[in-house]
Structures are given as structure tokens and as C-alpha cells.
Specification:
Elements lengths: L2 H27 L7 E6 L1 E3 L7 E3 H13 L3 E2 L2 H9 L9 E8 L3 H13 L3 E5 L13 H9 L3 E5 L7 H7 L2 H23 L5 E3 L7 H9 L4 E3 L18 E2 L6 H8 L4 H6 L3
Parallel strand pairs: 1-5, 1-10, 2-3, 4-5, 5-6, 6-7, 8-9
Helix pairs in contact: 6-7, 7-8
Length: 273
């Protein structure tokens, strides 16, 4: 199956833009207060990174330690969605959610023991065509085991992770709308059938979204959707275009701090008495 090669090429193009622009915006944001909420998105984990989307275990552990040391509190992604959609759902200071896209088997083999030890919530965005089919992906049994821990919420990444820009060029407008609707609906229905629960959150494949796709996703029953645009979450964010920070293998804790808008260590040092 061809899912990861297609995804990797699209993400790497986006990363080139993000990494070129982020140092400038991080410096501009450094003097501002850390906002109420942020969302991280990972993909794969391993002892050693073999590609940019695979985060080494030591790096992931260092991210968790950095978040604890800087007062961040890992919250369920649904808490951030509720906070966005209603003033009666407050968040703790420096709330942050951890998400993982695609359903790679390293989530079960590598990430799961860390989550069980540290006891923090994770949202998995899955495209179910790969589950129990692709060699790189988890099985339905493994997903059920993750669900049963009470720490993993399994949500939709469409049915088979298409590139909506490519499909829009290939298909007539009515056929494209039907194609997108099938991607949204079949994924939700299959995940709910196999795992139970309620699937109403969506991660956009390759981060591609627009007003037409958002309307179709909303019609298919999704209340919130998530991009890979590198911004913190504010009250002004549209619920079907909620930003997440894409985390890659080379992102050190210092890099993570820059993404989140933290002042660089030298600034912290100068403010000490």
C-alpha cells in the first residue's frame, strides 16, 4: 500500500516552509504570554529515527520532561474542543494535547508503554483502510487494547488518507463532493463499528482543507477538525481548522519551546533575580 510515501512527500514540502518561517515568528512571539492551549501531532516512534516523521524515543521522553518542567498540563483533546465551543469549559494553565496521526504500529509497540507509565491522554487519528491490512499499521485488536486503557481516544483521519487537491483536479465537482463525503462517512462508521464510542473529530490528510471540505465534514457529523498549521489555539480559531504543531525527528526540547512561543533560555536567565 502507498499511504506513507505519499504522505511523507506532502508533509516534507510543508515542513520546508514551516522551518523557514518559524524561527522568525518564534522570536516575535517570545515576549508574549503563552496562550491557553496548544496541540502537538506526532506520527511514528522508534529507538532511532529512520526518517523525519519518526521521533526517537529519547526525544519524545525529553519532550514530556520539558513540558512538565515548564508547567504544561497534558489534557484530552476533547477538553480543548469543548473550551473552544463554550465558555463553561475552562482549561488549566498551559493546556496542551498530544495527538498521533495514521495508526502506525509503533504507537502500540513504543508509545503505549510510555503513556501507561506516565498516564496522560492521547488522541489517535486513524485512516482505517490500513488497519489490519498494511504491514506498518496497527490491528483492530491493538486499537481495542489501546481504547480499553482509557487513555487513548481513536478518531478519524478519513478512510484512506487521500490528497484532496489531487482528487479535486481528477474528478468532476459532484463526483469530488461524493468522494470526500465517502472518505469522511466511511471512516467514521467503520471506526465506530469496530471500536465503539463516538467519532466526531477529524484530522485533515496532509493538512489540506477549505470551506467546501469543511462543510462536507460537518455534514458527515464532525464537530471539529485539525490541521498541521503551526500555531497555538486561540478562541478565534474556526472549529474545523484547529491548528497543531507537527513534531519531527529533529525537534529538540528547545525547538519545542520555540514552536510554543516560549522565550529562549537566555531570556529566562536574564529574568532571574
Amino acid at each position: 500500500m502507498r499511504f506513507f510515501p505519499r504522505k511523507l512527500s506532502g508533509i516534507l514540502m510543508l515542513l520546508a516552509v514551516i522551518m523557514a518561517l518559524r524561527p522568525l515568528t518564534a522570536r516575535a512571539d517570545a515576549a508574549q504570554a503563552v496562550p491557553d492551549a496548544s496541540i502537538l501531532v506526532y506520527h511514528r516512534f522508534a529507538d532511532e529515527a529512520k526518517d523525519s516523521m519518526t521521533v526517537p524515543v529519547a526525544t519524545f521522553e525529553a519532550h514530556l520532561a520539558w513540558l512538565r518542567a515548564h508547567g504544561y498540563q497534558i489534557v484530552p483533546l476533547r477538553d480543548i474542543v469543548a473550551w473552544l465551543q463554550g465558555p463553561s469549559a475552562p482549561l488549566p494553565p498551559r493546556a496542551i494535547a498530544i495527538t498521533v496521526d495514521d495508526g502506525h504500529r509503533s504507537v502500540y509497540e513504543v508509545m503505549r508503554p510510555i503513556v501507561l507509565r506516565e498516564r496522560f491522554p492521547v488522541t489517535l487519528f486513524i485512516y482505517p483502510s490500513a488497519i489490519s491490512n498494511a504491514s506498518y499499521a496497527m490491528t483492530w485488536s491493538e486499537l481495542r487494547e489501546l481504547r480499553d486503557t482509557g487513555l487513548f481516544d481513536v478518531q478519524s483521519h478519513t478512510w484512506w488518507h487521500p490528497n484532496f487537491n489531487t482528487e479535486r483536479q481528477r474528478l468532476p465537482k459532484p463526483a469530488f463532493a461524493q468522494f470526500a463525503q465517502t472518505q469522511f462517512t466511511h471512516s467514521r462508521e467503520l471506526l465506530e463499528h469496530e471500536l465503539g464510542g463516538h467519532v466526531d473529530l477529524l484530522a485533515w490528510p496532509f493538512g489540506i482543507h477549505d470551506d467546501e471540505l469543511a462543510a462536507l465534514a460537518q455534514h458527515a457529523g464532525y464537530r471539529a477538525a485539525f490541521t498541521i498549521e503551526p500555531h497555538n489555539v486561540t478562541r478565534s480559531i474556526q472549529p474545523l481548522a484547529i491548528p497543531r504543531f507537527l513534531i519531527v525527528d529533529a525537534c529538540t526540547p528547545e525547538c519545542l519551546g520555540q514552536l510554543l512561543g516560549e522565550p529562549p533560555p537566555s531570556v529566562h536567565a536574564r529574568t532571574q533575580p
